[in-house]
C-alpha cells in the first residue's frame, strides 16, 4: 500500500480553511426574523393586527395563550383565550436585538412565525377564566407588543456570503496549496543576477 506523505506545517492552514468553509455553509442560507417592539399598544394597532390576520399571543408572566375572536370596544380588548398549539411554543422567547432563525422548507415549515404578534400584559389582568375562555383586557394593562417580521437584510446576507465568500475561500485555499507545493518542490525559483 502506498503511503501518503504529509506535511504537518502545511496541513494546518488547509484544515482551518475547510473548517471555516464548513462553518460558513452551516451558518448561512437561513431565513431570519426580527422583533419590532411597540411600547404603547393602541386599539388601532390591534385592529391592524386583526385585519392582517396576525396570530395574537397574550403573555402574562411565564404563561401564554392564543387570543382569538378579538373585538375592541372603546379602550378594552375582548376575545377568547385558547391553549397554544405545540409548534407556537418554539418562538415564545426570542432575541429582540438580534436576528432569529426560522426554517422555510416543505417540512418543517416555520414561516408561520412571521404571522405572530405578542401582547405582554400586566400580572393582574388574566385570571383563571377558562370555563368560557372569554377575556377582557384594558389597553393601559398591555405593557408592550412584539411583532415578528422578516429580517430582509440579514436573510439576504446569509445567502450572499456563502455564494461569494465560499468560492473566494476555496480559491484562496487552492492557491495557497498550489503555491506551497510549487515552492516546496523547487518548481518555482527566482534567480537574481
The gyration radius over C-alpha positions equals 27 Å
**Overall pLDDT score:** 74
Largest sheet: 8 strands, mixed
Give the N-to-C terminal Cα separation. 46 Å
Helix-strand makeup class: alpha+beta
Cross-sheet strand order for the largest sheet: 5-1-8-6-2-3-4-7
Task: Work out the number of β strands.
Answer: 8
Strand residue content = 25-35%
Description:
The protein has 193 residues and is of the alpha+beta class. It has a domain at 34-99 and 111-150. It is built from three helices and eight strands; from the N terminus they run H-E-H-E-E-E-E-E-E-E-H. The chain has helices at residues 8-27, 43-51, 152-184, and strands at 31-38, 55-60, 63-73, 76-82, 100-102, 116-121, 134-138, 142-150. Helix 1 (8-27) runs antiparallel to helix 3 (152-184).
Characteristics:
single chain, 193 residues, alpha+beta, 32% helix, 28% strand
Give a summary of the structure in a few sentences:
The chain is α+β, with helices and mostly antiparallel strands and 193 residues long. It is 32% helix and 28% strand.
Amino acid at each position: 500500500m502506498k503511503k501518503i506523505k504529509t506535511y504537518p506545517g502545511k496541513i494546518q492552514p488547509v484544515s482551518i480553511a475547510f473548517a471555516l468553509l464548513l462553518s460558513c455553509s452551516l451558518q448561512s442560507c437561513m431565513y431570519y426574523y426580527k422583533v419590532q417592539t411597540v411600547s404603547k399598544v393602541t386599539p388601532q394597532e390591534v385592529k391592524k393586527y386583526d385585519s392582517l390576520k396576525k396570530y395574537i399571543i397574550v403573555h402574562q408572566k411565564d404563561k401564554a395563550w392564543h387570543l382569538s375572536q378579538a373585538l375592541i370596544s372603546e379602550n378594552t380588548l375582548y376575545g377568547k383565550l385558547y391553549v397554544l398549539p405545540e409548534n407556537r411554543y418554539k418562538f415564545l422567547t426570542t432575541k429582540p436585538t438580534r436576528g432569529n432563525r426560522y426554517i422555510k422548507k416543505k417540512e418543517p415549515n416555520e414561516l408561520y412565525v412571521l404571522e405572530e404578534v405578542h401582547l405582554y400584559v400586566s400580572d393582574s389582568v388574566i385570571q383563571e377564566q377558562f370555563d368560557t375562555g372569554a377575556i377582557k383586557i384594558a389597553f393601559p394593562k398591555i405593557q408592550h407588543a412584539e411583532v415578528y417580521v422578516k429580517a430582509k437584510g440579514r436573510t439576504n446576507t446569509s445567502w450572499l456570503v456563502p455564494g461569494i465568500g465560499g468560492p473566494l475561500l476555496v480559491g484562496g485555499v487552492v492557491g495557497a496549496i498550489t503555491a506551497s507545493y510549487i515552492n516546496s518542490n523547487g518548481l518555482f525559483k527566482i534567480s537574481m543576477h
